[in-house]
Amino acid sequence: MDRPAGRQPDGPGRRRRRAEPAVTTSEGELTYAASGVDIDAGERAVTLMRAAVERTNRPEVVGGLGGFAGLFALDTARYRKPLLASSTDGVGTKIALARALDRHDTVGIDLVAMVVDDLVACGAEPLFLQDYVACGRVVPERIAAIVTGIAEGCTQAGAALVGGETAEHGDLMGADDYDLAATAVGVVEADAVLGPERVRAGDVVVAMASSGLHSNGYSLVRRVVDRAGLDLTGTPAGLGRPLGDELLEPTRIYARDCLALVEELGVETVHAFAHITGGGLAGNTVRVVPAGLEAVLDRGTWALPAVVRLLEEHGVPRAESERAFNCGVGMVAAVAPEHADRAVELLIGRGVPAWVAGTVGAHDGGPSARLVGSYR
């Protein structure tokens, strides 16, 4: 694999590789840079991102400059029976809009959110994350902006960024193309794992507002933008800001808020979380509903976001919106009914708009989740 650098700046598990001497022949220059891999550019990117990465360190991070792997000391004395949880994801075609607008400082936050908000769904605390950036050409400032966003996401999630890799694939990707992926590891007590096994009839579904479209449905979004000739720098009626700003709004990171909810109310009260990604609200909520039960969510408890209405005005059917987009809800929690108001109060106090959106009841057959009513 062509790598200009192991993109491991000063800090645990982040190594840097030195450039080899240039090789020339009488037939012309034969260097790594001439072949499309610029080691010097990779080194400059490392320098630009160093401070942001260092800010993500946790006390458990072990090691320093030059390591080939990130080390993290799990404090086993802190846990009774710890289970490690892991999650891998990417950002998807939202990156195409970042390229179109030449703004690369937010997609790193999206990357972290997609991974850690999956982790916390089972009640796991995100511990550390490693990222992978593949690109056609290393532009140091661009790579630094991407990784600075990743570091910001890790800071929001409380996770350490213990390693990463930037791979320059000039023969496979266009010069300005790049893609992102990350893997995070978390920990949860074996007797505190959340999920459908804990959900029961009478539970209340608490919705947490999304910050925008998050990181799903962007192939459809881009198709609408292209077909309708929408101007990413213009401000459509009802949106209140340029369309590009709306579409690049980073994904809300709920990890610490969900963990605070569990810490305050306990697993006897907070039974499950569902991260609302591809598949929409009903399609993801059903993943935490056991057989014989159904989650019924009332659209009338919140307003459909203006950006979704805009996309619908340009041809997206409502049924497709509710499958492709989060429609204003980025995470839901199933909680015991007697503590629903307290759960909402706690989340709002932490800056996450939240409300009671539905209930869980008996249902014949397999697990079910559906939306009823009309949006405000």
From TrEMBL:
Biased composition (Low complexity): 1-11
Pfam families: AIRS, AIRS_C
Chain ranges of the PurM-like N-terminal domain: 84-188
Record-linked SUPFAM superfamilies: PurM C-terminal domain-like (SSF56042), PurM N-terminal domain-like (SSF55326)
Residue span(s) of domain PurM-like C-terminal: 200-364
Protein name (database record): Phosphoribosylformylglycinamidine cyclo-ligase
Catalytic activity: 2-formamido-N(1)-(5-O-phospho-beta-D-ribosyl)acetamidine + ATP = 5-amino-1-(5-phospho-beta-D-ribosyl)imidazole + ADP + phosphate + H(+)
Source organism per UniProt: Modestobacter marinus
Region of interest (Disordered), ranges: 1-25
